[in-house]
Amino acid sequence: MTERLSFGEKFGYGLGDMAANFVFQAMLALQLDFYTHTFGLTPAQAGTLFLVVGLGVACLNPVMGVIADRTNTRWGKFRPWLLWSAVPFGVIGVLTFTTPNISPAAKIIYAWTTYILLRVVYTVNNVPYASLTAVMTSDPDERTSIASYRQIFANSAGFIVASLAIPMVRFFGHGNDALGYQLTMGLLSVLSVIFFIIAFLSTKERVQPDPQQKADLGQDLSDLFKNRSWVVLFMATLFYFMAIVIRGNVMLPYFRYVAGNANLFSWFSGFGLASLVAGVACSTAVAVRVGKRQLFIASMFLAGAFSTALLFISPHATVVIIGTEVLRQFSFGLSGPILWAMMGDVADYGEWKTGRRASGTVTAAVVFALWAGLALGGAIAGWLFSFYGFVSEAPVQTAHAQSGILLTASVWAGLAFFATAVCLLFYPISREVNRKIALELAERRKGFASGKPQ
Q1: How far is residue 32 from each of residues 16, 40, 103, 197, 248, measured CA to CA in Å?
Q2: Contacts of 176 by beta carbon, 8 Å cutoff, 6+ apart
Q3: What is d(CA 9, CA 198) in angstroms, rounded to the nearest whole number?
């Protein structure tokens, strides 16, 4: 079974993830440092903000999935949400990285308000966007290809944020980091709005549920929790994004306080993210040979091992640190498209087993785990900093705090990657099962088109 999509459609779809990741990557790599070093929150305040808002707004993901599944427009179920959310996404992205000249108590209220709004608008935008992978094509390999495009663009945004954001903050701010952050995120947010609109115009929804299927939220949720592949992917996603945010949030403080040179962070991130993009580019070719599950497991074990290796490297061995990060990011990049392609496969698995399709609900429920993982990871990073005695805005940290930064970047992040791999050992959809499901569903859909009962 072959169902190829054009380069233009894949390219346009990928731009949508670049748009989202200008803000998402800033949350991963910069937000803890922004809140504690520029905005004026303590690590404990930032960690609590990430956890409470993250877990609270994560509950909106399944709701958004249900809403998207029940959206019916001439543009489809999921595409219109890219258009409707584009401008609010850009405006709120700027406001979240703005430091108002108000009292400390008012700043806390401002931080909570803007962070909540950012997380809400991201959910409204991202759940339908992620659901598109499952409905643009029914070909499992083509889904992996689509996911590779989006990951290349997402990681390109990560490269821009990680390697250029801090220099841009300094350039625009001229010593005023608050102004620098505001103008930097303003520029990136304008690009986000433009790219979301291009993604909307470029894509098409092709896979539709049985036209006789009746909306039944209770049945959709019941099917979801009986779907073993979804349960496993949910847990793997939780640990996956915990690992990402723990590692991502700690590396700038690592270079500032442990290595003693924050400027090295841009070089570290630039080389690492270039390697990550290379890993993403290789992912589809490897996955079609060994299978998504096997590749994902290997990727996570290697990412965990290279993360942990930082513990044994001198903080002044810059070349070795960057070289290890290149290996870690390439290994991690191999997994990048797999998670998103698996969401479509899990929706197929549920339809294959029950005869009912709920792409948005399945995707949103996994994305719930994504945001819960981000919330827990951000909170854990903030709490670990506080536990180890990290002091906000201090020019120098104690030896205990420096040790804690190193342990967070290596051991704690590494354990989260290893936990992801362990979860995936229980994922039931092999490459062979994946192809069998795709072929059988294709036959059923021919019946939908002809009006014959299945």
Answers
A1: 25, 11, 20, 30, 10
A2: none
A3: 10
> Cα(42)–Cα(305) distance, rounded to whole angstroms?
31
Decide: helix, strand or coil at residue 73.
Answer: strand
- Write down the number of H helices and E strands in the chain: 18, 0
Region 356-381: what's the mean pLDDT?
80
Query: What torsion do the CA atoms of 379, 383, 384, 386 make, to the nearest 10 degrees?
Result: 150
Cα 320 to its chain centre, rounded Å, is 27
Helical packing angle, 79-96 and 104-136, nearest 10°: 160
Six-digit token pair at 196? 């979301």
88-102, 122-136, 296-310: which range is least confident on average? 122-136
- Nearby residues of 182 by Cβ (< 8 Å), 6 or more positions away: 94, 97, 98, 99
The model's pLDDT over 139-179, given as tens digits with 9 standing for 90+, comes to 888 888 888 898 889 878 887 887 788 889 999 999 899 99
- DSSP 8-state assignment for residue 316: T
- Rounded to whole angstroms, the Cα distance separating 434 from 419 reads 24
Q: Which of 122, 414, 351, 362 is nearest to 233 (CA)?
A: 362
> Would you tell me how many other CB atoms lie within 10 Å of the CB of residue 148?
25
Q: In angstroms, rounded to a whole number, what is the distance separating the alpha carbons of residues 372 and 52?
A: 10
Residue 406 near residue 254, CB atoms below 8 Å? yes
Q: Is residue 449 classed exposed, middle or buried when 0-12, 13-18 and 19+ CB atoms within 10 A define those classes?
A: exposed
pLDDT in tens, 418-447: 999 999 999 998 888 888 888 888 777 676
Rounded Cα–Cα distance for residues 340 and 144 (Å): 8
Strand partners for 73: 76
Local confidence band at 355 (pLDDT 50, 70, 90 cut-offs): confident
Rg of the chain, C-alpha, whole Å: 21
From CA 8, how far away is CA 441, in angstroms rounded? 27
Residue type, position 11, single letter = F
Phi-psi region of 291 (alpha: psi -120 to 50; beta: other; left: phi over 0): left
Please give the C-alpha separations between residue 121 and each of 82, 147, 198, 254, 444, in angstroms, as whole numbers: 11, 22, 18, 31, 36
The first and second tokens of residue 110, run together, are: 């401002």
